């Protein structure tokens, strides 16, 4: 029987060890590259692959020369390893930026005690301004702009252990109740009291007061009882220039109520004093007395005034 003898096609070249030595990053890079038109998979010809097929394409780009041509990074094993750099070797500008990511409490309690350079950075305003600038909320941007317009006076910093911006970041005085022991959860700590009748006492609330840190209250007797507290706004985290800018609103609120079996008379007086304790602004409230056997609810007195 005559005919053309069958000739077994030559198998495609097998990949060498260079293919298996490729880094996973390079393999992912090669897989994401589009195939050139001349090297797209061709039709199968017998048991092997024709020339210019996918098998030869993988082999060709696995060589070191073509791997570099594809933009792959050289192996890290061949590059010299840079020695680690200590933080005290950083330029001052980079050190300030690195420390600005540290929480305020850690900056003051730990970083400030490392060395003299770190102490000067923590005591300076730049690291704290960077922290304020990182707050991109509307209130944060307004506060950052206000801190730039009304920077604290450096001459006043000598009387207090920390700079004004550090105290502000630590104490967070905005939107916080600045009255210490406001509900009597610690007895009469922080208060100056004048007892009348049987004197002051601390009892549980008769009705629930929403938002109170503790469901306890101060209770008076059958005669006038007074209590007062002095709040130092500078110690709480604000600074004099910020208060003088008239850009802050001070809100004063107090809950009060009467027992059902006895009436009461309530008065509230608030004064804003300057550094010499001269009265700048005052507010007072004298609501109508509550008669006996009429009610046992709690109500709130609230007033807002600018810091000017």
UniProtKB/TrEMBL annotation:
Residues 168-308 form the FBA domain. The lineage of its organism: Eukaryota, Metazoa, Chordata, Craniata, Vertebrata. It comes from the Eukaryota. GO terms for biological process: ERAD pathway; glycoprotein catabolic process; SCF-dependent proteasomal ubiquitin-dependent protein catabolic process. GO terms for cellular component: cytoplasm; SCF ubiquitin ligase complex. Signal peptide: none annotated. It comes from Heterocephalus glaber. This is F-box only protein 17 isoform X2. Gene3D superfamilies: 1.20.1280.50, Galactose-binding domain-like. InterPro entries: F-box-assoc_dom, F-box-like_dom_sf, F-box_dom, F-box_only, Galactose-bd-like_sf. One of its GO terms (molecular function) is carbohydrate binding. Residues 84-131 form the F-box domain.
């Amino acid at each position: 029987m005559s005919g053309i003898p069958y000739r077994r096609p030559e198998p495609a070249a097998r990949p060498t060890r260079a293919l298996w030595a490729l880094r996973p990053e390079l393999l992912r890079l090669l897989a994401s590259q589009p195939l050139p038109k001349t090297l797209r998979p061709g039709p199968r010809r017998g048991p092997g692959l024709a020339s210019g097929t996918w098998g030869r394409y993988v082999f060709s780009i696995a060589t070191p020369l073509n791997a570099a041509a594809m933009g792959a990074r050289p192996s890290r094993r061949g590059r010299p390893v840079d020695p680690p750099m200590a933080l005290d070797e950083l330029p001052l500008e980079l050190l300030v930026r690195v420390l600005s990511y540290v929480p305020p409490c850690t900056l003051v309690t730990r970083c400030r005690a490392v060395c003299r350079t770190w102490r000067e950075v923590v005591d300076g305003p730049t690291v704290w301004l960077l922290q304020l600038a990182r707050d991109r909320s509307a209130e944060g941007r307004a506060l950052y702009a206000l801190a730039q317009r009304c920077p604290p006076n450096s001459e006043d910093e000598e009387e207090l252990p920390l700079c004004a911006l550090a105290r502000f970041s630590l104490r967070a005085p905005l939107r916080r109740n600045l009255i210490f022991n406001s509900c009597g959860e610690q007895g009469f700590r922080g208060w100056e009291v004048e007892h009348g009748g049987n004197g002051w006492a601390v009892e549980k609330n008769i009705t629930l007061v929403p938002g109170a840190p503790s469901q306890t209250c101060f209770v008076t007797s059958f005669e006038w009882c007074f209590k007062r507290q002095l709040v130092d706004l500078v110690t709480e985290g604000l600074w004099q220039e910020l208060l003088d800018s008239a850009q802050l609103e001070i809100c004063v609120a107090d809950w009060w109520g009467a027992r059902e079996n006895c009436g009461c008379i309530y008065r509230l007086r608030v004064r804003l004093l300057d550094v010499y304790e001269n009265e700048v602004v005052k507010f007072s409230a004298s609501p109508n007395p509550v008669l006996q056997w009429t009610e046992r609810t709690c109500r709130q007195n609230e007033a807002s005034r600018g810091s000017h």
